[in-house]
Amino acid sequence: MTEGSQKVSIIEVGPRDGLQSEPEILSTLAKVEFIQRAIDAGIRRLEVTSFVHPKRVPQMADAEDVIRSLPDRSDVTYIGLVLNRRGFDRARDVKIDEIGMAVVASDTYNRRNQGVSTNESIQAWLDIARDAKEAGIRANVMVSSAFGCPFEGEVALQTVLDIVDQVAQGDPVELGIADSIGVAVPNQVTEMVAAIREHVPHLPIRCHLHNTRNTGLANAQAALESGVASIDASIGGIGGCPFAPAATGNIPTDDLIYMFERSGVETGVSLEKIIATSEWLQEQLGRGVPAMLPKAGIFPQIAEKYREAS
After folding, report:
1. Using omega within 30 degrees of 0 as the cis cutoff, is the peptide bond preceding 300 cis?
2. Phi and psi (nearest 5°) for 205?
3. Rounded Cα–Cα distance for residues 55 and 141 (Å)
4. Pairing outcome for strands 265-266 and 77-82
5. Is pTM beyond 0.90 here?
6. What is the pLDDT of residues 114-123, one digit of tens each?
């Protein structure tokens, strides 16, 4: 890495947020290979599964089997999503590296997604964060649908800040802000990140963005320029949320890395290996993925191919 260069941490969420919204259910073996491919490409933090009720999210029914099958790497952090005490107990028992808890910024969506009110999820997070620390497990928290709710509409910035103030009492290793349904635009990201950094200057901020309305990459650039430490992405751009209407499209890891690297931002991730994983994923799913780089190729390398063919 060159001295003084800008860098960002890419958190791969395809094995969790990506696969949970796809109709196909991959085998445990295929999920482990997916994760291993991401690690081989240079990813060092990954959301690998969620500990949720298998009847609600059957794609994640093998959470424990996935964790037990992963390579033991001291340089890699495996993250599991939990939504309640039962989920945390399962994650703790299987010795997950890190748990992530989601608190939705609107009551309606929180009840549909988690079966309880936003305040109840906040209290559950505070209890879980305490117990995770006692168990030696890292714990992060994500404020989901921070930019808009599919049922209630706009979410006020002050609502998000109030939730941030409460969840920060759990001393998370990282505070996430999610545009779960892909409604944000760059100036909103800039405004929200600045306000949150003022409220909790000691907490690293992570952004989880969706490309549902084709603003995800622009929002990622705004997040980077605002000082966000980590950005979530999904190889191939698969995923969304199974409990929100039309919430398709995590930002593709492929396209995000291309944009950053062409801009001089270092990610430590091999774009070639990420694209190869997207192509492998297409074979597993039996269809194409939303990411553009597997279709268009890496520039300027692709120009050489066309030159040779002409």
Report:
1. yes
2. -110, 140
3. 24
4. unpaired
5. yes
6. 999 999 999 9
CA distance 266 to 273: 16
Q: Which two tokens stand for residue 43?
A: 């990813």
The DSSP H or E segment spanning 304 is helix 301-309
Give the pLDDT confidence of 154-193 residue by residue, as tens digits: 999 999 999 999 999 999 999 999 999 999 999 999 999 9
> Kind of pairing, strands 6-7 and 265-266?
parallel
Nearest Cα to Cα of residue 114 among 141, 92, 82: 82
Checking 111-116 for CB contacts under 8 A at 24+ apart, the result is: 112/151, 112/243, 113/83, 113/144, 113/241, 113/243, 113/244, 114/83, 114/84, 116/84
Give mean pLDDT, residues 239-243. 68
Q: What is the pLDDT of residue 34?
A: 98
Give the C-alpha separation, 147 to 153, whole Å.
9
Residue 241 above 70 pLDDT? no
User: What pLDDT is attached to residue 1?
Assistant: 44
List of residues 6+ apart from 303 with CB closer than 8 A: none
Task: Determine the pLDDT at residue 305.
Answer: 73
Q: How confident is the model at residue 302 (pLDDT cuts 50, 70, 90)?
A: confident
Domain annotation for the chain: domains and CATH numbers: 6-309 (3.20.20.70)
Residue 219: helix, strand or coil by DSSP? helix
Whether residue 241 lies in the annotated active site: yes
Q: How far is CA 153 from the centre of its chain?
A: 22
| Separation CA 86–CA 122 (nearest Å) | 15
Catalytic residue of the set 241, 251, 271, 289: 241
d(CA 48, CA 73) in angstroms, rounded, equals 14
DSSP state of 175: E
